[in-house]
Amino acid sequence: MLEHAQRSGSERREAVAARPRRSLAVGVVALIGTLMALMLTVPAHAGGIYLSEGSSGRTVTCAQQGLNNWKAQSGKGKYVSVDGKFGPATKAQVKVFQANNGLKSDGIVGAATAKSLQRWVKGLSCKTLLVPDATNGGTPTLRVGSQGPAVRCVQRALNAWAGKTVLTVDGAFGSQTRAQVVKFQKHARIAQDGVVGRETILQLKYRVKFSVECENYLMV
Predict the structure, then answer these.
(1) Closest-CA residue to 180 (of 144, 208, 220)
(2) Which of 65, 162, 175, 202 falls 20 to 30 Å from 81 in CA-CA distance?
(3) Which residues form the Peptidoglycan binding-like domain (predicted)?
């Protein structure tokens, strides 16, 4: 009886001691799952430009012009409509361009593809939209005419800073977005040029919490 009681007591102590270990194991598994989910939310072409099927605007127009100029020179692929709408035809031609320029053929215009396309566009406006200012250390430079996820992140941040919806989060950097940027820059006591570069992004991040996705689109 005594031996049985001692054995039962020992077993209970071992079971109690095992609970924290099981809880720790469950916690580690949950943490790994969370980290993997966060990794999946990071865009494959983090920072700067990111155009894919469904994107629209001036930057897409510039990319389409570059694709057509390259097609005229290389004779490869098909011409695309320069309409600022990233549809299946544009995606297909992006893949052709990538395959012939040593790039990953995924049909997405990220930083590397945009940089390669830049030499095929004309005009400073398109060259600037496709490739962020190199002097900015890779930080995107957004201004009137810019389009895409990075602009949407800035618009959300400006709304959060204002404490109300002052801008439509449409990813199009127009006059209203510029006006709100200038207002924020004045508040932050930095250059009031209406351009979102490294300093403006840093000031926004100091005042507003960014999502994981936006942290990567607006790296500084």
Answers:
(1) 144
(2) 175
(3) 60-117, 147-201
Residue-wise pLDDT for 94-152, tens only, equals 999 999 989 889 998 888 888 889 889 887 667 777 765 444 445 668 888 888 888 89
Query: Residues 208, 173, 128, 83: what is their CA dihedral angle, to the nearest 10 degrees?
Result: 140
The stretch 177-181 carries a mean pLDDT of: 96
DSSP conformation class of 127: H
Record the tokens describing residue 16, joined without a space: 């109690």
Amino acid identity for residue 159 in this structure: N
Cα 162 from Cα 91, distance rounded (Å): 37
Amino acid sitting at position 212: V
Q: Which comes out higher in pLDDT, residue 90 or 62?
A: 90
Alpha-carbon gap, residue 32 to 24, rounded angstroms: 12
Show me where the domains of the chain are located: 1-41, 58-131, 149-217
**64 and 80 in contact (C-beta within 8 Å)?**
yes
Per-residue pLDDT of 16-35, as tens digits, reads: 555 555 555 555 555 555 44
Number of H helices and E strands in the chain, helices first, is 9, 0
149-217: which CATH architecture? Orthogonal Bundle (1.10)
Is the separation of the CB atoms in 197 and 141 below 8 Å?
yes
Rg (C-alpha) for the chain, rounded Å, is 25
